[in-house]
Design a protein that fits this description.
The complex is a heterodimer of chains A (267) and B (274). By secondary structure, chain A is mainly beta. A six-stranded antiparallel beta sheet of chain A has the order 2-1-11-10-7-8, with no helix packed on it. Chain A has two helices and 22 strands. In chain A, β7 and β8 form a beta hairpin. Chain B is α+β, with helices and mostly antiparallel strands and 274 residues long. Chain B has a single domain, classed as PPM-type phosphatase domain (Phosphatase 2c, domain 1), CATH 3.60.40.10. Chain B is built from eight helices and eleven strands. A five-stranded antiparallel beta sheet of chain B has the order 1-11-10-6-7. In chain B, α1 packs antiparallel against α2. Chain B is globular. The chains are: A mainly beta (267), B alpha+beta (274). At the A-B interface, α1, β12, α2, β15 and β16 of A face α3, β8, α6 and α7 of B.
């Protein structure tokens, strides 16, 4: 389910799931999201959510509704959009995929109780029956869905007090989007100056263990550098980074353990 | 013996990217060398009730017990370590609490939880687990799973029906064959292991192990082992970056030095200087 993260001055105040078709935002108490601030109109804006899509509409507010710094009247929300009302910010986070909510149900851990299993998702190994306290009973009419057949996707969900035998569970959700760009680091000083390294792994450590170590993480949003150990934090373009992850930009110069490294995206 | 100087513990739990609430529960008592992780299941918020009850019962009861009973002592009758008996009894107690709540309150009907508990003492750890929450070990460059899931998938792997590679793509990852609080009695799987200084142990819910490959988890621990808090956050972030379809919880424990229970002053002093 999509959600909004309400914050002010960088401080997260609360998380609001967009569970209703219409979520109203305003100063008056009858709104779903009440923001008690004079810069916010009584009925300021509304978010209409249809399936996985959410639309933001300004309800003729006095001070306007801004999305990512631009004033909007009507806006189709994209994940990570930042809605601004006065001093308050609402970050919109959409669910990963339209089918994700449905798939998520199948991700829930469920217990398979001895004797409760009605339909085997896979043919049962004979050995398993002896090794484990699992009985296999086939529910009348429950057969005929070969595991993995496309038709099985439409099969009714197992029901009852204990949910078992989910032949209808979809295959693992598609792999998450890889970062859009490939990136490299090149050593600019030190004994290995000129050496290049492509950042293919989710994590790449830089520095000397026990002295100063930083890690570059590859994430869907891009590349980030984080301080791991050592008294000094690495610098990016001459400035020491903070404790949290620091997003890397093309041609940033990282310096740590006395070595300069350039980060750049592969052309 | 206070273990807070011997064990470095970091934990992190997150609802993930899809779920609106967190049914996982984690707890640790550093000075007693105790860590507990539970992944609850059941409708509405019953899952978090079950996991919360299990972790609370086990930590409060064990904390009390450990005050008076050294876990490394061997019971002369059964030949068992006290730690083994303590874990058995407290898991049973937690099971009864969850089971009775689910029987007496309609909104909690059918709730249950997985569980993994580790108790550290005398250069050893006693691990109890139920369901598919796991304990992994990083020793040197070697990273591997210590506990074996109580899940349909694991049974299929054991029976040779599925290979580990096939299991990664299986659709029935989420079926556990054992859970705490579902039936009047439950048997936890309990084993003792030796620990070594430098070891890093990871307890996690399936929200991590289903979303991030063992290889990547091992890589993160190797790269960030020097900064346990960061490593815990990194693991959760990796699960979320990969989709975060379930709640993600991790507890990391690093063994900083030896912690022999000491059977005399001499060995205590010797242990001190090692």
């Amino acid at each position: 389910m999509a959600k909004l993260i309400l914050s002010m001055d960088g401080l997260v105040l609360k998380e609001i799931p967009l569970s209703k078709e219409r979520t109203t935002i305003g100063r008056k108490p009858h709104n779903d999201i009440q923001i008690d601030n004079l810069a916010v109109s009584g009925e300021h804006a509304v978010i209409v959510t249809i399936l996985a899509d959410s639309f933001l509409e300004d309800l003729g507010s006095t001070n306007g509704t801004f999305v990512n710094g631009k004033t909007v009247k009507k806006h189709f929300l994209q994940s990570n959009d930042v809605i601004e009302l006065g001093k308050y910010k609402l970050k919109y986070i959409s669910e990963a995929l339209p089918g994700a909510a449905k798939a998520a149900d199948f991700e829930k851990t469920m217990v398979l109780r001895p004797g409760a299993m009605r339909k085997p998702p896979e043919p049962q190994p004979p050995a398993a029956a002896g090794a484990a306290p699992v009985h296999v009973e086939t529910m009348p009419g429950g057969i005929g869905h070969p595991a993995g057949a496309p038709a099985a996707a439409g099969a009714p969900k197992a029901h009852g007090d204990t949910q078992v035998g989910m032949a209808a569970a979809p295959a693992a959700a598609p792999a998450p989007a890889a970062p859009v760009r490939r990136a490299m680091v090149q050593l600019l000083s030190g004994a290995n100056a000129g050496k290049e390294l492509e950042l293919t792994k989710p994590l790449t450590t830089l520095g000397k263990p026990g002295v100063q170590v930083a890690v570059i993480t590859r994430r869907p949003q891009g590349f980030f550098i984080t301080h791991v150990e050592g008294a000094n934090k690495p610098t990016v373009n001459g400035k020491p980074i903070e404790l949290q992850a620091h997003a890397l930009n093309d041609h940033d110069i990282i310096e740590l353990a006395g070595v300069k490294v350039e980060f750049f995206f592969k052309p | 013996m206070n273990l807070s100087q011997v064990l470095e513990i970091a934990s992190h739990t997150d609802p993930g990217m899809v779920r609106s609430h967190n049914e996982d529960s984690v707890a640790s008592v550093a000075e007693k060398g105790l860590v507990v992780l539970a992944d609850g299941m059941g409708g509405y918020n019953a899952g978090e009730v079950a996991s919360g009850m299990a972790t609370t019962v086990i930590t409060t009861e064990l904390r009390q017990l450990l005050e008076d009973h050294p876990p490394h002592e061997v019971d002369p009758l059964s030949g068992q370590k006290a730690a083994m008996k303590m874990l058995q009894e407290q898991v049973a107690k937690a099971n009864t609490s969850v089971y009775q709540a689910s029987q007496s309150q309609p909104q909690y009907a059918g709730m249950g939880t997985t569980l993994v508990v580790a108790l550290f003492y005398d250069n050893k750890m006693m691990v109890a687990h139920i369901g598919d929450s796991r304990l992994y070990r990083m020793r040197g460059d070697e990273f591997g799973q210590v506990t074996k899931d109580h899940s349909l998938l694991q049974e299929q792997i054991d029976a040779g029906v599925l290979t580990k590679a096939q299991a990664k793509h299986a659709s029935n990852k989420n079926l556990v064959t054992r859970a705490l609080g579902i039936d009047p009695v439950v048997e936890a799987e309990i084993h003792e292991y030796d620990t070594q200084p430098g070891d890093i142990y990871l307890l996690c819910s399936d929200g991590l192990s289903d979303m991030v490959s063992d290889e990547d988890i091992g890589m993160a621990l190797k790269a960030l082992g020097a900064n346990l808090n960061l490593a815990a956050q990194q693991l959760v972030q990796m699960a979320n970056d990969n989709g975060g379809r379930d709640n993600v919880s991790v507890i990391l424990i690093k063994i900083l030095r030896e912690y022999s229970a000491g059977h005399g002053l001499a060995s205590k002093i010797f242990g001190w200087f090692r």
